[in-house]
Amino acid sequence: MAVPERPRRIPYRERPFDLRATAVFFGLSALLLVIVGLSARTVVEAAERRPAWAVVLSLFAVALFLAWRRNRSRRIPISRLARRTTEALEEATATTLEAVEEDRADAVRDDETTAVLDYAALSADGFEQAIADLCVRDGCSRVSVVGGAGDLGADVVASAPDGRRVVIQCKRYGDDNKVGSQDLQRFGGTCYTVHEADVAVFVTTSDFTAPAEEYAAQCGIVCVNHQLLRAWSEGLAAPPWAAPGPGGSPR
Fold it and tell me: Which residues contact 203 (CB under 8 A, 6 or more apart)?
């Protein structure tokens, strides 16, 4: 009688310890913790300045976590998991660095704008140059600063985007020194006849007296006081060569 043969038990073999794979895994884990910490800090800062960035980074973190869970359930080899984790970390790092650089650039632009807006602290020549820079920023061509002795009332001359000739008189006055009608009359006597202006603009860091505004309205001179100058420099008001509104002020 034949005796049934018992099936042989295959002895359990432990997987050999892979020092390199383990070192890579823990190294990536440590790097992941650092990236998570930096990302969390960036998210907090971005949420204060740009709420949209916080939403984007949060969605990316959720997607990364779900991908990790899916890979874990499939028991993907550690080498492939390490490669995918590295790629995800590189993408997250690039996104984070882009957000940080953009925030830094915005901060630098804000600082530069704040410095330029302090027109009263500029010298007379610096004020004229700042007005010329605003003309360049808003699309004027052939911009030149011609102020000085014998300028006959023209400090900045430029060509508007539509080709009209813009002539600007700049007066850096204090708050207690308003531009009077005599200043406007001197400018009005030369801006059209001598400088052949299509648009005549009078810019000051202070304000205009009532008679000066009346004279400007009669002659078609655009008056830009300190409030309109700030709005123009911040992009909140149209440039002076735009169609003038009531009283000779830009719309």
Answer: 131, 168, 169, 170, 171, 224, 229, 240
* Cα–Cα distance measured from residue 169 to residue 167, given in angstroms and rounded to the nearest whole number: 7
CA angle 193/171/150 to nearest 5° reads 50
Q: What is the DSSP string of 132-163?
A: HHHHHHTT-EEEEE--STT-TT-SEEEE-TTS
Domains of the chain: 21-117 (no CATH), 122-248 (3.40.1350.10)
Tell which residue, 117, 60, 68, 67, has the closest CA to residue 94. Answer: 60
- Residue entry with tokens 């420099």: 233
Query: pLDDT tens digits, residue range 13-54?
Result: 555 656 676 777 777 777 777 777 776 676 666 666 666 555
Rounded Cα gap, residues 153 and 151, in angstroms: 6
User: Per the structure block, which two tokens stand in for 21?
Assistant: 């794979």
Render the burial of 74-108: b for 16+ CB within 10 Å, e for the rest.
Answer: eeeeeeebbeebeebbeebeebbeebeeebeeeee
**Neighbour tally for 155: CB within 10 Å:** 25
Both tokens of residue 20?
């390199």
Cβ 146 vs Cβ 179: under 8 Å? no
Nearest-angstrom CA–CA distance, 53 and 71: 27
Sheet holding 199-204, edge to edge: 141-145, 156-159, 165-171, 199-204, 221-224
> Which two three-digit tokens encode residue 155?
């400090």
> For the chain, how long is the longest CA-to-CA vector?
134
What pTM was computed for the model? Answer: 0.53
Cβ atoms of 188 and 227 closer than 8 Å? no
